[in-house]
Amino acid sequence: MQCVGILCRKQILEANERYFINSSLIKPLSALPILLHPILHVTHIQEEVHACDGLILPGGLDAFGVYAAKEADSFSKYYDGFADFEELAIIEAFIKQKKPILGICRGMQMLQLFFQGTLETSYDTILHQKEHRHVLHFATNTYLRQLYDRPCEVNSYHHQRVTKIQYPLIVDAYCEDGTIEAFHHAFLPIIGIQWHPELQQDDRILPYFISLICNKIPAFDPTKDPSYQNKQA
What we know:
By secondary structure, the chain is α/β, with parallel strands linked by helices.
């Protein structure tokens, strides 16, 4: 049976700091023939990487603005301590073993920082989204075209956003205002999405990611995409 590691987030509840994973993320995964393994910190990261076949980086609070040389604003919310550095160390450990990684919302943004891309620490979220939803547009060559009708609508709850990415990351989807909503790694089974698939009624991302972990389908190769082949003909 495959094992998926899920990075836990922190919150203060009843005056105590607690680790948690949103039930909306556990529920769809618990119906699958996999083991869910919570990851708290980097203390035993090598054991965690050895035990897990893949990693999910869930949504969470903002990344520190210092990464982009930006000042915090009144909407910025951060984790205390070294949560950002721990997450980057966990990403590095899984990448070294070439194991699948799915970054959701903040998780996508942390992947962006790991690969030295640009992160806008605060922007006009009201203009970007209406009632926390907007239309998603797909890049020409992307695995998302094999999963969703296009264009499609997704949820939106982020305060920061990915702007410019660095190769080997490749854009898969974007919003009308130019916000990058999804990317994948050119050589490794790493994908990042800005929306929350666990809150979508028509989610295809989580099943796709689990299929990668279970070796049921190959990682996306844009050169094998029909639209790419037709373009080359």
